[in-house]
Specification:
The chain is of the alpha+beta class. The chain has three helices and four strands; from the N terminus they run αβββαβα. It has a single domain, classed as Ribosomal Protein S5, domain 2, CATH 3.30.230.10. A four-stranded mixed β-sheet has the order 1-2-4-3, sandwiched between helices. Helix 2 packs across helix 3. The chain starts with 10 loop residues before the first helix and ends with a helix.
């Protein structure tokens, strides 16, 4: 799991990112990112809607896999990242392929 300082707190912070962010769409995951004031830590959120899979167990598994990959990567400070999963195939992807999908999204930031 991510450290407390790298998580979003409250709905208002996500709302700000959605309103001012730039958007990159991948094959299974999309990324919204926005700049933060200098000297601030990056923040990450992973959104998996019920539309992807009705089972909370599957949605949480997808979320945990993505958080673990992001925890091991080096991200730019002073950015907010929101990863939105829109395909249920993400649950069955091999971790190496999921990692390359996420890294491709982060390269464009």
């Amino acid at each position: 799991m991510l450290k407390q300082k790298h998580r979003f707190h409250g709905y208002g912070s996500l709302k700000r990112v959605y309103s001012v962010s730039q958007h990159i769409r991948g094959q299974y995951i999309s990324l919204r990112y926005a700049k933060r004031p200098p000297n601030k830590n990056y923040r990450i959120a992973v959104v998996v809607a019920k539309k992807v899979n009705k089972s909370a167990v599957v949605r949480n598994r997808i979320r945990r896999r993505i958080y673990e990959i992001l925890r091991q990567t080096n991200l730019k400070d002073s950015h907010d990242y929101i990863f939105t999963v829109y395909s249920d195939q993400t649950a069955e992807l091999p971790s190496a392929e999921l990692k390359t999908q996420i890294e491709q999204l982060l390269e464009n930031v």
